[in-house]
Amino acid sequence: MIELSGAREMLAWSRARRGEGRRIGFVPTMGYLHEGHLRLIDRAREETDAVVVSVFVNPAQFGPGEDFERYPRDLARDRAAARDRGADCLFHPAPDAVYPRPAVIGIAPGPLTDHLCGPWRPGHFEGVLLVVAKLFHLVEPDVAVVGRKDAQQAVLIRRMVEDLHFPVRIVVAPTVREPDGLALSSRNVYLSSEERISARAIPRALAAAHAAYVSGERAAVRIVETARTVLDAADGLDVEYVELVDAEGLAPVVTAESDQMLAVAARVGLTRLIDNVLLGPGPDGDIRLAS
Ligand code: AMP
């Protein structure tokens, strides 16, 4: 595995691989890699011939008072994990390589941030789209793999790529969970053992709402209410939102249908966690009930 930190070096490496007839797969991350990230590498490997993993904690997507400074970082561990999983290139640019000067031009996510995390994290998705656009230009991937755990982000990236004709195919990979259902996240390291127990209510709430849908409930308010009841019963959980939205436009729905998304954000102590489940018989149908 080669390791690169310069913008020009990255682009040169990628173009050289393409010159050899290899297709480039790309997994953008903020590091502190866990099994969820590593499955994205597996998926990129299946789809392409040379896999680039980026590790970059993007300052532009953190708001004032958010956890940019304390976000967990461990490059040595990430290097070993990416290499062992078969990545071909680890790209960990310094902030100056990505932001040689402050960007004046941005990408507006429009109404796709009217709901879910958008209102709670002003400017966050503008920061995400800015860095993803930059990274796509530095890596020039054929395929980029992102996780459905960050579903709003995945929708926005896919839409940006379509609307702006980026020549890259976006693959959205399923959420990887702990045995008790909690979605893997670099931020889980912040949780104390009590907070970790409280956090289990999130997958439990999603599972309860999913079960209500499967057993015939079609009123969105009642499905949302089912999830909220589970969350409200948990100690130490401060719910930001529970919304049932259509999976493309991310607007709340009245009548539940398969493939809509029930999404939750909640704070456990200082840690903000998000998760979601797709309604219906798809792969999320087996979301586990936390015990
Ligand atoms: P992050 O490092 O948290 O910015 O995440 C980098 C990529 O990994 C994003 O595409 C995330 O959606 C994805 N990801 C994070 N956690 C998970 C998970 N538990 N399962 C699948 N993908 C994940």
Which labels suit this protein?
35% helix; 291 residues; globular; 6-stranded parallel β-sheet; 3-stranded antiparallel β-sheet; binds adenosine monophosphate
This entry's quaternary arrangement is single chain
The mean pLDDT is: 96
Rough shape?
Answer: globular
The structure class reads alpha/beta
Overview of this structure, please?
This protein is an alpha/beta fold and 291 residues long. It has nine helices and nine strands. It has helices spanning 7-19, 35-47, 75-84, 95-98, 124-139, 151-163, 193-199, 201-214, 220-232, and strands at residues 2-4, 24-29, 50-55, 89-91, 143-147, 169-173, 237-245, 261-268, 271-278. The strands form two sheets. It has a six-stranded parallel beta sheet, with helices on both faces. A three-stranded antiparallel beta sheet has the order 7-8-9, with helices on one face. The longest helix has 16 residues, at 124-139. The protein is globular. The termini are far apart. Adenosine monophosphate is lined by residues 29-30, 36-37, 40, 146-147, 149-150, 173, 175-176, 183-186.
Quick summary:
This protein has helices spanning 7-19, 35-47, 75-84, 95-98, 124-139, 151-163, 193-199, 201-214, 220-232, and strands spanning 2-4, 24-29, 50-55, 89-91, 143-147, 169-173, 237-245, 261-268, 271-278.
